[in-house]
Structure to design on (685 residues):
């Protein structure tokens, strides 16, 4: 950290992926905090983009993907936003408009042959402006015994990502679940309806801004505060 | 009765639920059972389609699963699943607990496979912490031991409930009786029959009890004998085969399209097992086979489950043989839970040695204990996806950390959730009774489906 509060970019890393800021050591503000920890400000930094070489079979995989994209006349730089290699897992950040082409390529290309898409999971980063909603797709290739992760981001203001149910039918329910919990609209999904919550439910419960209920207690109007409003470490 | 007044809609003697209304598709009649006579007057020649709601409260729907079946006579034309009746918000809850407390939640998801839920979660957390290689050997052996015993107990329930749903009630009583042997072992080792919260990031909650190894070893012969009895009830049983052979058919192509894993995929002939292809917890060092069938049907899945239970017994025996004394938690005191449990005079409690140490010997240990228990450890920011081979297929945990003391997001790719999508492919075009066999062969657990 520098004095201005901006994170120092570690050596060998092009940029930092700051998705939020954590303040204080306890989650409450405005209390009589005399410890000084309340003044802490630290950015939430996700693993930064990785430059070649990625190491291991990741380079081979990236070569295959680049070749396959070239075969399909898709420019690599506009399809893949960035690549992150972290904890022995490789993540391709793919732009939303190319996810269908990318998924079809992963499935059909003999050198890739990712037979299985193991669903999609939403992650909500309210402070990652313009890309608040992340859809994370884990892929598995049984043929090559490899895994990769594809991450697609969407803005809260326009939460649309094309559906890949046409390529991986198994993603049907997974996309419905992600719509249900995060409000990501998977365009061209055959029937994007709620799956876990009741049909008439309002809101998307796994988003970080979804209000959690407190519990009224029958003692002089007291309530047990909702979990996100309790004093807790963060 | 004179003081009872009926509302205008409820003419006594008429079923208020048995109404009818017009739609663009024709007249829709709502029936609640026992009132079929009331639509005997339906016009002749009209195409008759019957939509049956099976479940969510029905003994043969494997928990609170709702099946919406559209029937033409007794043939299923259209099958749809309604889920969500058991959604408990476990994933959301975990975002407000420490990393260690998360185990207590995940163990309750798929309630027949608590150890697999815990394993997927703790392996993901360990991967985020970068301590995968530091897990003590004994902890890994105990994990494999518990998981394989759990695989047997889960498959026994699959046979028991599946048998019951098809009318084989003795299979049900046998299956649950055998499972009891295993639940007794779980109780002895973890203190709880189910929902053990036994695996912790860094190892397991506590070591096996002193007589644990012997108790497990002593149970195995009886278990093996009884497992054979249960299997003998059904293998080559003409009625059982009549209900399951060629029922719930899903070939390899269908399995791949629908992302099927576990016994369903292996019944299509593909020996895909994560314990072999992407081993974890040291599975690469155990000798076992991956049973497959090529019949693609419910009977094949049944045979696979029987065979897998015997493979699991083989692994359990190997585990017992290689149990050597040692730690069951990582060395790192910043992660390892500070206290060890011990049995006091009241049957529970922390080890008195530890209490004595923190209360009267070392202030620093007390602070350390307090910080670790209340605040918990932090996990460096990032994400990990770890999958284990649960009895139902690939159980994946996608865990995201923002560098804090609590998970930022945890998502489980539960095999039941995914595999249940195959209900339509397996049962459309078959008889109503075969839907039950097809769903039973998927063996979904709604606690895992809905989480």
């Amino acid at each position: 950290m520098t004095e201005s509060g901006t994170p120092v970019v570690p050596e060998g890393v092009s940029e930092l992926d700051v998705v939020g800021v954590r303040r204080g050591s306890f989650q409450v503000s405005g209390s009589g905090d005399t410890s000084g920890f309340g003044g802490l400000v630290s950015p939430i930094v996700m693993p930064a983009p990785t430059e070649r070489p990625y190491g291991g079979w990741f380079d081979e995989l990236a070569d295959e993907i680049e070749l396959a994209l070239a075969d399909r006349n898709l420019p690599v730089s506009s399809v893949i936003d960035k690549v992150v290699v972290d904890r022995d897992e490789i993540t391709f950040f793919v732009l939303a408009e190319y996810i269908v082409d990318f998924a079809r390529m992963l499935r059909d290309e003999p050198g890739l042959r990712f037979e299985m898409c193991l669903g999609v999971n939403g992650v909500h980063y309210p402070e990652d402006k313009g890309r608040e909603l992340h859809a994370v797709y884990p892929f598995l290739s049984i043929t090559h015994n490899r895994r990769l992760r594809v991450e697609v981001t969407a803005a809260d203001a326009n939460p649309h990502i094309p559906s890949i149910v046409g390529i991986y039918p198994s993603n049907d329910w997974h996309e419905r679940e992600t719509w249900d919990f995060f409000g990501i609209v998977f365009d061209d999904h055959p029937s994007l309806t709620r799956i876990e919550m009741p049909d008439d439910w309002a809101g998307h419960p796994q988003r970080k801004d979804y209000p959690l209920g407190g519990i009224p207690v029958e003692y002089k109007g007291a309530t047990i505060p909702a979990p996100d409003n309790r004093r807790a470490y963060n | 009765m004179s003081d009872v007044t009926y509302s205008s809609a409820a003419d006594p003697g008429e079923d208020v639920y048995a109404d009818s209304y017009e739609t663009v598709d024709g007249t829709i009649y709502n029936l609640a059972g026992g009132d079929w006579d009331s639509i005997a007057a339906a016009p002749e020649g009209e195409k008759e389609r019957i939509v049956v709601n099976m479940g969510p409260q029905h003994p043969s729907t494997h928990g609170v699963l709702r099946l919406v079946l559209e029937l033409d006579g007794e043939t299923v034309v259209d099958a749809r699943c309604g889920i969500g009746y058991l959604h408990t918000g476990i994933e959301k809850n975990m975002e407000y607990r420490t990393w260690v407390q998360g185990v207590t939640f995940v163990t309750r998801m798929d309630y027949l496979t608590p150890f697999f839920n815990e394993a997927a979660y703790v392996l993901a957390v360990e991967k985020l912490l970068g301590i995968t290689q530091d897990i003590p050997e004994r902890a890994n052996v105990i994990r494999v031991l518990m998981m394989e015993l759990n695989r047997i107990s889960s498959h026994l329930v699959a046979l028991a409930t599946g048998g019951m749903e098809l009318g084989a009630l003795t299979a049900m009583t046998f299956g649950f009786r055998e499972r009891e042997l295993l639940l007794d072992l779980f109780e002895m080792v973890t203190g709880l029959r189910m929902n053990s919260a036994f695996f912790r990031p860094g190892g397991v909650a506590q070591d096996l009890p002193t007589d644990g190894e012997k108790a497990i070893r002593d149970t195995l012969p009886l278990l093996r004998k009884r497992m054979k009895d249960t299997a003998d009830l059904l293998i080559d049983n003409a009625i059982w085969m009549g209900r399951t052979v060629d029922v719930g058919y899903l070939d390899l192509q269908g399995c791949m399209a629908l992302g099927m894993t576990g016994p369903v995929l292996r019944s299509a002939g593909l020996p895909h097992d994560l314990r072999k292809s992407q081993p974890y917890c040291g599975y690469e060092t155990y000798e076992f086979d991956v049973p497959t069938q090529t019949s693609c049907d419910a009977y094949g899945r049944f045979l696979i489950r029987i065979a897998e239970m015997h493979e699991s017994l083989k692994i359990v025996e190997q585990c017992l043989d290689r149990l050597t004394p040692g730690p069951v938690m990582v060395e790192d005191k910043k992660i390892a839970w500070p206290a060890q449990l011990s049995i006091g005079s009241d049957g529970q409690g922390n080890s008195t040695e530890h209490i004595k140490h923190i209360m009267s010997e070392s202030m620093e240990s007390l602070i350390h204990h307090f910080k670790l228990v209340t605040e918990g450890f932090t996990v460096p920011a990032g994400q990990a996806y770890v999958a284990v081979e649960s009895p139902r297929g690939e159980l994946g945990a996608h865990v995201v950390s923002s560098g804090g003391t609590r998970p930022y997001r945890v998502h489980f790719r539960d095999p039941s959730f995914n595999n249940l999508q195959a209900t339509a492919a397996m049962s459309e075009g078959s008889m109503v009774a075969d839907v039950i066999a097809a769903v039973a062969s998927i063996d979904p657990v709604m606690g895992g489906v809905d989480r």
